[in-house]
Design brief:
442 residues; 2 domains; five-stranded antiparallel beta sheet; SH3 type barrels; binds manganese (II) ion; Fumarylacetoacetate hydrolase, domain 2; alpha+beta; single chain
């Protein structure tokens, strides 16, 4: 578990002036990774590090040869078109690279002249999914979400008895994961109207979002060898924002007995920037369970997890309708919450995933599950915010929404802030719903 060190020192300033502005997502204490290229070009994607409103190009920095030793090996791996090689190297390399970047980007650094030529403004960049994602698993770690949604799908039995014992998850689909800026056509499928005799086919009528965090696996584990709670976080590279788009009407009809399928696998959007666990060290929080609840089984418990297994990441959901976009208005904020309300931690997810010997691999992605907080205004999905479509959201411009309409964009944001530490952010995760495609006739 990464502890605070000199890279988190709140007095550090960068020679990239925009990194020193109050409220900036990417100060020198953050240093998240993405893959990028110049917008509108056919250049190869390569790894980059956010600093202020700029990207430090790791391929260019590698060519300049300013880094040495372990950090140089990290820069070389990070210069590739996906971050898998860097992710696979493990925490020793990640830490050495972060420390070297922190030194080289500080005010007065001797590397300034060389690295100044390796910067690209973020406004001139386009991004790709940061890793080649072999497998994607979506968990269900918010007990508030599980209870709220359970009430709607099974009013008589909202929270199933396994929830407080097992970190619930299902295997999702990696091929349809896209990066922020993704747009996708509204899916079509089978739905069953309440009280109807048989299902109908057509475009989804209950298009929803899910506010989640994505956890990128770093070095994997050997098939058959379980990771324990003490090892789990050494296998986590970092965290991004994730929108697990959900077709609720398709989900309600298809999800029993094996869980979600076509209601989830048409699109998943991640933010380009991956914030490392080390950057998040100041924002650790105790993991607690209500005393009346079952405490985690021994294999899911550790002193370190109890002391600081949770993460206080502030999360926000906004919806920008086409009318707002045309009027130049920003997204309307519909939810504010924090990751600290989750029922299971990152270490517990990783440990549980491998307890049967399942092998995680570098670049695998775990979704946290919808991160709803304890009150309804902290809910991370429209199905909860509108109580199943019964109470529409009312926007300041006079528009209403129960579910997403064609042209709506969803904007997720995340950040950490507290007294005594520098605020760090995750940037944005934006995705847009397009109209359903006309079906080709047979
Ligand atoms: Mn989900």
């Amino acid at each position: 578990m990464a502890a605070c060190n000199e890279t988190h020192n709140p007095t550090l300033r960068s020679w990239v002036d925009s990194a020193n502005l109050a409220g900036c997502d990417f100060p020198i204490q953050n240093l998240p990774f993405a893959v990028f290229r110049r917008s509108g070009t056919n250049e190869n994607f390569r790894g980059g590090v956010a600093i202020g409103d700029q990207i430090l190009d790791l391929a260019a920095a590698n060519q300049m040869g300013v880094f040495t030793g372990t950090a140089a090996a990290g820069v070389q791996a990070g210069a590739q078109d996906k971050l898998n090689a860097l992710m696979a190297m493990g925490p020793e390399v990640w830490h050495a690279l972060r420390l070297a970047l922190s030194h080289a980007l500080r005010t007065g650094a001797s590397e300034q002249a060389a690295l100044q030529t390796c910067l690209l403004p973020q406004s001139q960049a386009e991004y790709d999914v940061p890793a080649r994602i072999g497998d994607y698993t979506d968990f269900y770690t918010s007990i508030h979400h599980a209870t709220n949604i359970g009430k709607q799908f099974r009013p008589d039995n909202p929270l199933l008895p396994n929830y407080k014992w097992v970190p619930i998850g299902y295997h999702g689909r990696a091929s349809s994961i896209g990066v922020s800026g993704q747009s996708f056509h509204r899916p079509s499928g089978q739905t069953m109207a309440p009280g109807a005799a048989e299902p109908t086919f057509g475009p989804c009528k209950r298009m929803d979002l899910e506010l989640e965090l994505g956890i990128f696996i770093g070095s994997g584990n050997t098939l058959g060898d379980a990771l324990n709670m003490g090892e789990a976080e050494d296998h986590v590279f970092g965290i991004c924002l994730l929108n697990d788009w959900s077709a609720r009407d398709i989900q309600a009809w298809e999800y029993q007995p094996l869980g979600p399928f076509l209601s989830k696998n048409f699109a998943t959007t991640v933010s380009p920037w991956v914030v490392t666990l080390e950057a998040l060290a100041p924002y650790r929080a105790p993991f607690t369970r209500p005393p009346a609840d079952p405490q985690p089984m021994a294999y899911l418990d550790s002193e370190a997890n109890r002391q600081q297994g949770a993460l206080d990441i502030q999360l926000q959901v906004g919806i920008q309708t086409p009318q707002m976009r045309e009027a130049g208005q920003p997204a309307a904020i519909v939810c504010n919450t924090s990751y600290r309300h989750a029922y299971w931690t990152v270490a517990q997810m990783v440990t549980h995933h491998t307890v049967n010997g399942c092998n995680l691999q570098a670049g695998d992605l775990l979704g946290s599950g919808t991160l709803s907080g304890p009150t309804l205004d902290q809910a991370g999905a429209l199905i909860e915010l509108t109580q199943g479509g019964k109470t529409p959201l009312q926007f300041a411009n006079g528009e209403q929404r129960v579910y997403l309409e064609d042209g709506d964009a969803v904007v997720l944001r995340g950040w950490c802030e507290k007294t005594g530490a520098v605020r760090i952010g995750f940037g944005e995760c934006v995705g847009t719903v397009l109209p359903a495609k006309a079906r080709k006739s047979i």
